[in-house]
Amino acid sequence: MTEKEQILEAMRKADMPLNAGKIAELTGLDRKVVDKTMDAMKKDGSIVSPVRCKWEPAIK
């Protein structure tokens, strides 16, 4: 499972917008890896921000 898939899975399971720190905690991934992966996900439109600094999958 790629980092992107792990992040999306954690977001779907939480069923609420999450910040990068919480995603790192839930997935066990390093925070820097989460930040880098989320930057790419923001650019490709896989995640959206409904509230400041929190993210969720673009398509649930």
TL;DR?
By secondary structure, this protein is of the alpha+beta class. It has three helices and two strands.
Q: Would you spell out the secondary-structure blueprint of this structure?
A:
Blueprint: H1 3-14, H2 20-27, H3 31-44, E1 47-51, E2 54-57
Antiparallel strand pairs: 1-2
In words, what does this structure look like?
By secondary structure, this protein is α+β, with helices and mostly antiparallel strands. The chain has one domain: Arc Repressor Mutant, subunit A (Orthogonal Bundle), CATH 1.10.10. Helix content is 57%, strand content 15%. It is built from three helices and two strands, in the order αααββ. Strands 1-2 form a two-stranded antiparallel sheet. β1 (47-51) and β2 form a beta hairpin. α1 crosses α2 and α2 (20-27) crosses α3. It is globular. 20% of the residues are buried. The model has no long low-confidence stretch (mean pLDDT 96).
